[in-house]
Amino acid sequence: MSEQFIGCTVSIKCINPLGTYQGQIVDLNRDTVILTKAFRNGIPYPSPLVVLFAKDILYVKIISTEEVGASTTDGQLQSKVTVKRPIAKRAERSVSDSIAPIVQPTSSQAQPSAKKQADAPPVNLEPCFNGKINLGESAAKNTSTQRRLTNRQKRLERDEHTFGTPIDQSLSQDFDFEKNLALFDKEAIWQEINSLKPDIIRQSENNRGTTGKYRHDENIIEGEPTEFRQIMVPCPDAKEYVTDDGLVIPSITFDLHRRLIGAADRLGISWERRVELLGRAGSEIILQLLGGAHRFNPNNAHQWPTVVALCGPHRSGAAGVNCSRQLSSHGVKTIVYIENSEDVSLLQELTLYKLTGNKVETKVKNLPVVVDLILVALCEESSPKMVSPIAKWANNNRAPILAIEPPALGTPGILSKFSLLGGLPLSHSAENGRLYLCNLALPNKVFSDVGITYKSPFGPKFVIPLHSNNS
């Protein structure tokens, strides 16, 4: 009896850990069912064969059967079920073509079929599956099958209406832009738009048309760029500088600069006060040039920087020594080179610097070959323009060079990358590199005594960069 179910497609629900299997029966007995082409819980099973034990099966549901012999050995007819699956939808195929045709038998054919079905004995599947086959009521099965087909037809009709519309052949033709553009009367439309504008707007547009048309990136209003001048000097020098905020800083002559410093000394802003501000500004710039917080990290002690200060016997040299002392307070290794220390200001700063424990060198050969930065304060505007062979050492070293209060024409033999200035700038040459202006905290009285109208350009900053004003 079990041979007639070989080849049937069934759905077998097992106990919870096993799940539900669908497949084709290849072998069947009272203890086991063997399936091929199996799916487990809707997922293809990796093994070609699945063996299910009867003790694990909850119920069995027949999905479809293959045609078996019309009669058995005793000549009796056997029931057979033929399930025709829907044909896959293809291009240019309507919904009616995609659904398998349902053939209704004629009255002459219906009676013999009914008679044969009546004469055929009922199929008893219970002995094969131990009573676990869920055949259900035939009426309920027919009703559910009809309902499923009806729902499927509805889905196919919906898909056909959505995606089955044939492509318009006109889309394959090129669009004629010139023909369609000719249908649009631009002149009439522009006249209608212009007629709605006020007279003053039409007049301004007509006047603009006589002078030429402007692109979207062109400035219609002609005029000089806006300048912010809040510092006026009686005798400005050749150059002008501008800050990042657009403030114009005029350059002054060396004579006016000397009178400005004299007025500061006279009013109590002594050199000792100014040199501390220059040293602090120089150390602030150098710390940033050396890497800032990334370089000055306690965990980065193996890459701690070294700075060499080249100082001359004058006030600018004293500012270089002061800057080295302030750098030492940040942990920077500093070396001060000085050939002679006859200047009183330099001696005072040098005495304070030696308290840091860092080196003071008087010979070029004792300077290190590789350093991180070179601080130059060898010359000032009134000192002689002769530099010792220390310039050769500075040029051979590839470290960046920062000059403090250099001459306007630059330090002889040394090309600086940065320069730090105090008060107001002179007309500096390109050999001094990029210029930075330090706030020496001079009161307005100091500037007014020498005829300068002054308003601070520093804002929230202590040091500001200066750029050449090319406008």
Question: Would you mind describing this structure in some detail?
Answer:
This protein has 471 residues and is an alpha/beta fold. The protein has helices at residues 95-98, 107-119, 126-129, 138-163, 177-182, 186-195, 199-211, 254-266, 271-289, 315-328, 344-354, 390-396, 444-449; strands spanning 9-14, 20-28, 32-40, 43-44, 49-53, 57-64, 228-229, 236-242, 247-252, 306-311, 333-338, 359-361, 373-377, 401-404, 418-422, 434-438, 463-468. The termini are far apart.
Strand order, largest beta sheet: 7-9-8-17-16-15-14-13-10-11-12
Poorly predicted segments: 67-127, 129-140
Distance between the termini: 107 Å
Q: Would you count the extended β strands for me?
A: 17
- Element pattern in H and E: EEEEEEHHHHHHHEEEHHEHEHEEHEEEHE
Strand content: 15-25%
Overall radius of gyration:
50 Å
Q: Determine the mean pLDDT.
A: 78
DSSP helix count? Answer: 13
**Most strands sheet:** 11 strands, mixed
Shape: elongated
Overall SS class: alpha/beta
Which percent range fits the helix content? 25-40%
Keywords:
single chain; alpha/beta; 13 helices; 31% helix
Quick gist of this model?
Helices cover 31% and strands 20% of the residues.
List the helices and strands and how they pair.
Layout: E1 9-14, E2 20-28, E3 32-40, E4 43-44, E5 49-53, E6 57-64, H1 95-98, H2 107-119, H3 126-129, H4 138-163, H5 177-182, H6 186-195, H7 199-211, E7 228-229, E8 236-242, E9 247-252, H8 254-266, H9 271-289, E10 306-311, H10 315-328, E11 333-338, H11 344-354, E12 359-361, E13 373-377, H12 390-396, E14 401-404, E15 418-422, E16 434-438, H13 444-449, E17 463-468
Helix pairs in contact: 9-10, 10-11
